[in-house]
């Protein structure tokens, strides 16, 4: 049935490896694959690099087992692709950050293992060009396109300086794109990808591009993407947010947010990368005034019609900003759910929102 039942404490990588051993693929991959667990992935509705192709963690969940605050156990591990027999209670536990129940097992959907995996690292002249390239690749490649990440200057130059491996492309472009295909026709997929990229070069959407020619080069290009985390984690006092912005509003958001942060602190450093295919930016700032920067970013996100958490959840840090992107009626409904499932407020109390308004 191409499903797997995993216990909540299993690390993501164990699920990926078990799928691989069965000739299949698990659709979610994130940098924390070695430590992040199935329970934590479910609770945070983890996303990662291939949401474009496979959806978020929610899309992988066919069923869950969860223990409620009163000790009752809900088990739904039949793995049915279709089951409209009443409410889908599984959905309540996905992305609710452990506030409604403790997940103990999950039945997860697996996918065919791709025969082809190729990626390309592209220097592009602007965010508009990166968005145009995304549209072209989607149009030409359809579901073959499996990931589409961006890295904005000056992050690429700063992280390349400390990288042991050689840089795939010279520093100096405003935006870099890492695009990936996963396909089932190894004799055709790479050619289709190369043709789409070459067309984009001719259309001046791409300035420079390097395409992986071997599994080693494929891994090396992904390692460049993961280098962003290594570089950013090494900076003390950096503030880091994970937001989603409609693509049509992203350029305005980036321009106005940077101007407002620099008006408060002209020496602030801003580092941005993310999953452009999902409208998801990881936005980092080193500044002497973190409180002002948080306010500027989150109000900018709200003005753009975005979300204050694209994939990392609200937790404790972001709950003061939730009201910017969720209506009073939505937050009141969340409170009613919490009170119904956990009347004594014993499960992750104070996460996402406080039970009492105000
Ligand atoms: C290097 C790095 C890269 C990352 N990249 C991405 C990325 O690209 N995309 C993305 O979406 N995320 C990313 N993340 C965040 C990641 O998704 C979460 O940290 C992870 O999914 C949480 O799993 P965990 O086991 O670490 O949970 P924890 O951090 O232990 O817990 C997270 C939350 O889930 C709750 N929880 C944990 N287990 C259960 C359970 N069994 N039942 C109910 N609630 C539970 C906890 O109470 C807590 O509220 C990244 C994190 C790191 C460190």
Order of helices and strands: EHEHHHEEHEEEHEHEHEHEHEEHHH
Average pLDDT metric: 96
Helix content: 25-40%
Low-confidence stretches: none
Shape assignment? globular
Q: Which CATH architecture of the largest domain would you pick?
A: 2-Layer Sandwich
Question: Order of strands in the sheet with the most strands?
Answer: 10-7-9-8-12-13-11
Kindly estimate the percentage of residues that lie in beta strands according to DSSP: 15-25%
Helix-strand category? alpha+beta
- The CATH class label of the largest domain is Alpha Beta
Domain module count: 3
Number of strands: 13
Helix tally equals 13
- Rg computed from alpha carbons, rounded to a whole number of angstroms: 21 Å
Bound molecules: flavin-adenine dinucleotide
Q: Separation of termini?
A: 48 Å
Largest sheet: 7 strands, antiparallel
